[in-house]
Amino acid sequence: MNNQDLLAVAEEFGSPVYVYDAEKIISQYNRLTSAFNVEKLRIHYAVKALSNISILKLLNSLGCGLDTVSVQEVKLGLEAGVDPSRIIYTPNGVSLEEIEQVAALGAQINIDNLSILEQFGTRHPDTPVCIRINPHVMAGGNSKISVGHIDSKFGISIHQMPHLLRIVENTGMNINGIHMHTGSDILDIGVFLHASEILFDAARNFKDLEFLDFGSGFKVPYKEGDIETDIEDLGAQLTSKFEAFCKEYGRELTLAFEPGKYLVSEAGKFLARVNVIKQTTSTVFAGIDTGFNHLIRPMFYGSHHHISNISNPEGKERFYSVVGYICETDTFASNRRISEITEGDILDFSNAGAYSYSMSSNFNSRYRPAEVLWYKGEAHLIRKRETFEDLIKHQVPVDLDINVESAQSS
């Protein structure tokens, strides 16, 4: 997609609008699958990153499975045509009833706490279950996305292995996989490889495994010169370790990963129109027709999204603070060098494919934007922009017989 393509999308579908490049998703998937030279490889796309059914259908057509965290995500995958055998369900803190709902749908169950493991194993000993362990490894680019450390709510501690094994023995349940996920935006592959050794050690306690799931957390570049996970180096080193383990274990296991951001982040663009240029005594603000209701990552994670003015890409650069229209501090970028901006220009936010639309809301009663998939030179609308009717369709007006005078006196 070039600037003229993006401007045409903004003109046709309005702003703000999310645009996803299908070819970039395909190339990221191919790069990942090429990096790991193992006999059995399974990629499960993390639906939470971007859950539009058209994206799920695209990935399904490539042979990609799904990583889900709710029964609703499982149902979205089934709606997109994904076979339930290629869906893994890794919830946290959900009820036993929800897990049983998903098991009935045929997805692979992945349990991360001892209480539910014992209850599920007692009631469904024949249903294959994967166990999510907590390797107690601190990894990830932000405290909110580091999930494998000792204080994390995720996973069963490796130090609880004796208790875990007693539950498995007492229930006679079928453990077919071991899983871990240390965090997102991992730069040091040495940390990932260290955690993998812990996973191998845990796997040695189980004799009938079919797969080992290493989660994901691969980092993508957010700006020029930014570093990313060296997926080829990780692939070469982990492939060697995995093959050695399989030889020791006595059978070929499946190597599984659950990338989300890695597959869709760079494919996404978020386009917004400039409503106003506001000069103060110290700052030039570019106020745009969106806010953290549509793209919360900068305010929530402190994430960096490269911003370019595609209406004036060759203009002289000036310093701007790009802010939204929400009634709270709503800053996308502070004192950022951007080509000179005038009111009505379209700004392009890069790396908007992951955890962007999926974390949007109706805060301030604003409509969520449209989503567009760019494929083979054409724009395809894959989600309509919301309308006022969408805001109120699930609200239930109640007529209360209130006496105004008595209410005021009380």
UniProtKB/TrEMBL annotation:
Class of the enzyme per the UniProt entry, highest EC level? lyase
The pathway it acts in is: Amino-acid biosynthesis; L-lysine biosynthesis via DAP pathway; L-lysine from DL-2,6-diaminopimelate: step 1/1
Listed name of the protein: Diaminopimelate decarboxylase
Biological classification of the source: Bacteria, Pseudomonadati, Bacteroidota, Flavobacteriia, Flavobacteriales
Write the gene name.
Answer: lysA
Amino acids binding substrate: R297, Y301, E328, Y355
Q: Which UniProt keywords apply?
A: Amino-acid biosynthesis, Decarboxylase, Lyase, Lysine biosynthesis, Pyridoxal phosphate
Kindly list the positions at which N6-(pyridoxal phosphate)lysine occurs in this protein: K48
Native organism: Autumnicola edwardsiae
Assembly = Homodimer.
Please indicate if the UniProt record lists Cytoplasm as a keyword: no
> Which is a Pfam family this sequence falls into?
Orn_DAP_Arg_deC
- InterPro entries (alphabetical): Ala_racemase/Decarboxylase_C, DAP_deCOOHase_LysA, De-COase2_C, De-COase2_N, De-COase2_pyr-phos_BS, Orn/DAP/Arg_de-COase, PLP-binding_barrel
GO MF annotation, one: diaminopimelate decarboxylase activity
Provide the Orn/DAP/Arg decarboxylase 2 C-terminal domain boundaries: 18-353
**Entry-linked PANTHER family:** DIAMINOPIMELATE DECARBOXYLASE (PTHR43727), GROUP IV DECARBOXYLASE (PTHR43727:SF2)
The EC designation for this entry is 4.1.1.20
The Swiss-Prot or TrEMBL record describes its family as follows: Belongs to the Orn/Lys/Arg decarboxylase class-II family. LysA subfamily.
Query: Which chemical reaction does it catalyze?
Result: meso-2,6-diaminopimelate + H(+) = L-lysine + CO2
The record places domain Orn/DAP/Arg decarboxylase 2 N-terminal at 23-265
Instruction: Give cofactor(s), names only.
Output: pyridoxal 5'-phosphate
Question: What biological function has been recorded for the protein in this entry?
Answer: Specifically catalyzes the decarboxylation of meso-diaminopimelate (meso-DAP) to L-lysine.
Q: Which residues bind pyridoxal 5'-phosphate?
A: G217, Y355
